[in-house]
Amino acid sequence: MTKRTSAKYKIDRRMGENIWGRAKSPVNRREYGPGQHGQRRKGKMSDFGTQLRAKQKLKGYYGDLTEKQFRRIYAEAERVKGDTGENLVGLLERRLDALVYRAKFVPTVFAARQFVNHGHVMVNGKKVNIPSYRLKEGDVVEVREKSKQMALVLEAVQSPERDVPDYLDVDHNKMVATFVRTPKLGDVPYAVQMEPNLVVEFYAKN
């Protein structure tokens, strides 16, 4: 198991939930945290603990973003008119690596970040290798020609684990995805319940 894969499953175990809905998650076998004291950690959480957990889960879902990265996105969500929690989800889903994952061009969000970093993706006909690149409605994302037959890509496209959400228009024959619209929380196919409202409460108090 690679270091990155190990870290990914550690997030699942820390949260006690299969946050990406993957068949190989260790949480499918045991629902407690990592380490020798993992089984003792269950119990009623404080409001702070519940809010912190909601933040860690959402942050972890998008490839375990750093606190600095996540806080910056949250600050932007707070500045934009409208519901801060909904804005936060919309901004996270507009990341290029999030679209590459949602479009099923790769099997995991961690693979999506690496895939973009290595220059396998174009946006509106130009190579972009920045995972956090912010997409706009109507942007067209395409897997580069030389990358379309990679085993990683073919495996992801054929996987029955996930469906493509309707805010993307995806053609897997051409390996092209259009970002149709910015989604609301209810549009995003999270495998577990995400609670951005608790993230807002967390940052309001800390």
From TrEMBL:
Query: Domain Small ribosomal subunit protein uS4 N-terminal: where?
Result: 3-93
Listed PROSITE patterns:
RIBOSOMAL_S4, S4
Task: Look up the domain of life of the source.
Answer: Bacteria
Q: Does the keyword Ribosomal protein apply?
A: yes
Q: Which UniProt keywords apply?
A: Ribonucleoprotein, Ribosomal protein, RNA-binding, rRNA-binding
Annotated region Disordered: the residues are 23-49
Q: Write down the Pfam families for this protein, in alphabetical order.
A: Ribosomal_S4, S4
- Enumerate the GO terms in the molecular function aspect: rRNA binding; structural constituent of ribosome
Question: What processes in GO biological process is this protein linked to?
Answer: ribosomal small subunit biogenesis; translation
| Cellular component, GO annotation | small ribosomal subunit
The RNA-binding S4 domain covers which part of the protein? 94-158
Q: Tell me which family the UniProt entry assigns to this protein.
A: Belongs to the universal ribosomal protein uS4 family.
| Quaternary structure and interacting proteins, as annotated | Part of the 30S ribosomal subunit. Contacts protein S5. The interaction surface between S4 and S5 is involved in control of translational fidelity.
Q: What does this protein do?
A: One of the primary rRNA binding proteins, it binds directly to 16S rRNA where it nucleates assembly of the body of the 30S subunit. With S5 and S12 plays an important role in translational accuracy.
Q: Under which name does UniProt file this protein?
A: Small ribosomal subunit protein uS4
